[in-house]
Structures are given as structure tokens and as C-alpha cells.
Amino acid sequence: MDEKTREEIALFRYGLIAPLLNGQIEAKEYFQQMEGKVHSIPYYGERKVAAKTMQEWLLHYRRNGFDALKPKSRSDRGDSRRLSPDDKDHILEVRRDFLHMPVSVFYEQLIQRGEIIKNQVSYATINRLLKKHKLAGRNHMSFHPEKERKRFSYDKVNVLWQADLSHGPYISINGKAKKTFLIAYIDDCSRLVPYAQFFISEKFDGLREVTREALIRRGKPTIIYADNGKIYRSETLQYACAQLGITLAHTQPYDPKAKGKIERLFKTIQTRFYPLLKSDPVNSLEELNKRFWEWLEVDYHRKKHASLNGKTPHQLFQSQLDNITFIEDLSILDNIFLKRAVRKVKLDGTITLEKRLYEVPSQYIGQKIEIRMDEQAVYVFEDGKKITKAIPVTMHDNAHVKRGQSPFAVSDTSHHGEELDRV
């Protein structure tokens, strides 16, 4: 069993204990709900999970964190199967991301993605499976948008943060009009914005920055509630939330009303902030964010909200500071938001990542190693700990038979007693 699989299993286990960990439900009631329920567990397939097992996971997590939920490494030599119960569950999960597709198109997508083999699994089989679970045609709930909805609002701050991305104004960068995107969080109780920022792309790097700053400035929420957008479904965000003990919840597909408070925030920004830019335009992304943050603190956070009984978001949030959990060791944020990958080290001590060569310690030659990265650097991790930084290899260096001395040569000689020749 490789490290990625172990982390996927740990993430599943965390998902089961998260409601207990965050006090969302009483243990007795939760175990009654889970009794006899079959779960699709990564690597293991469909299994039931006993209450005692969940209690053990909860204890392990509280004592030693996310890594304590990982199983011991094992070899994974599973044979290919036809449409087993595990395969069915996986197909249903994939279907939830492609509800807009007709079943016939979805069937072809499964074949192209390598999820099924055409000669082994027919269209009729997939169609019957989806119909049985009401994920085909107009049986699915997404075709009934006016379903019953109950209003809710938490009475304590930092219980739930709603998250979303909105299209921002165009700004001029180097003489060209660039579209901007606003990534934001809003606290469900106080309507305060823990953090928000404009970017010129919709990539995860922006969400990483906003989440990190929100946690530093406003403490840690119990739940983050987001839609099914790609960045909010990323493994990096899931792992980060699991490490911090935050429950990551998602809305149902095609259900924007489920995030009413942050949608209302975006509407307020459009009607009260964007008009200020028309009368006094900005000339850079930096200026846009500076003006926005000033407006957010002076205008939005200090205005009374009717839904807050005449209080301002700032007043309500400040009145509950004693209930806020701040992250004591902020250095943890430097690692948990790194993107992850697994690479096999070549005989010359290098790996390829996003069409670039990186050099790693020669002790890993021939092994698969875990890589974590951000836009600044690439790191080698082992057992969840940062070991060293991978060194970029330029194409000029790589074109020569003998490159310059490896930056890892000193450490290698100390471990092995001899210096390796590079080829």
C-alpha cells in the first residue's frame, strides 16, 4: 500500500469521525445512525464500521492527529474485476460530478477515462445502476430545484464558514484588460468576512492564500461549507482540513441557494463596492485589493445588519472572542497546503515534475517518493515530514554528460562513505 492510498484511507476515517470530533452530534445518536451502514472504503471496498472502531479512530486522532489514522503499509496487488460492488460505488461517485450529462454520454466518458471496459460492461448495465439510485434522467433531485429548504443560522462564531468564488471586475495590467476573481469566506453567525482577495485566475493557489490568511486572522472554524467547484474538491484542501480538525462539507450540485449568505455578500460587494471603482478606477491588482480591504473594514464590517439585531459583523464577532480557537503553531500552515504527488526517482537521482527535472538525494534512487509543492518550491517528504528541498536541474546542465557536483553529495558521502559518479 503506497502513501497516497494510506492518506486516502485516513481521510475516509477522518470523514466518519469529524461530526463527533467537532461536536455536531451526540455520540450515541451518531452511532445509532451509522449502525449497519455499508461504507465504500478506499482500498478495502464495501464494509461496515463498528462503533468501537470509530471510537478508536477518534481517540487516535485526538492523541496524535491525522497521521494516526493511516493504516500500516501493505502491498497492493488487487486483480482487475468486472462491475463489483466497489466498482458500482465508484461509478455512482463519479456520476455525481457529471449529473449534467445524458447517461449515454456519461457511459462513453467512463470508457474513455478507463473506468470500465466496453466489452465487459454494457450501456444497459450502467443505465440500470443509475436509475436504481435515481441518478439518471429526471429522477435526480437536481431537476427539482424548489425542494423544501429550512433557514438556519448558527448562534456562535466560527462554527461554519461559507466559501465561494465570484467573478470580479476587469482591470488593466500591462495595457491589457484582465478579468479578476474574488475568493472569500464569510462567518455564518456574524456575517464577518474572515478573509477575501482578488486574483487573476481561479486556481487553487488563490484559495490556499485566502484560507491561510483567514485562519491566521480569525481563528479556526468547525466547518467549511463550499460548493462542488474544482478547487473546493481538491485533495490538498481535504488533507489540510483533516490535519486541522475542520469538517469540509459541500452543497448538493446545482444548488446555489444553499450558500445564501455568501451569495448575499457578493451581491453587496457588487452594489456597494464596484460602483466606487467606476468613478475612481484602479490600475493594478494590488490597488484593487488594497481598496477592497479598506472598504471591507470601514464600510461592510462596521455597518449594522438587520439580521444581526442591529449589530455590526465586527461587534458580534468581537463579542465572542473567548470562544474562538486560534492556531498556536502557525508554521503548520506552511506544509499542509502544499500540493502532493508521488514520483519514482530515476537512476541519475532526478524526478520529473510538470515537465521539469528536479534532483533529490541519491538514497532514494529507484524508489517512489512523496513530493509536496507550491508555486515557490518542491519538497521531498517521508512519513509526513519534510526531508529536503528538490533542486531544479536546468536543461543546460542536463545536456552535459557531467553536471556540476550534486548539492546532496556531502550528505550522500556521509551516509554511504563514498561519492557517487553522476551520469
From TrEMBL:
It comes from the Bacteria. GO terms for molecular function: nucleic acid binding. Pfam families: Mu-transpos_C (PF09299), rve (PF00665). Residues 141-321 form the Integrase catalytic domain. GO terms for biological process: DNA integration. This is Integrase catalytic domain-containing protein. It comes from Virgibacillus oceani.
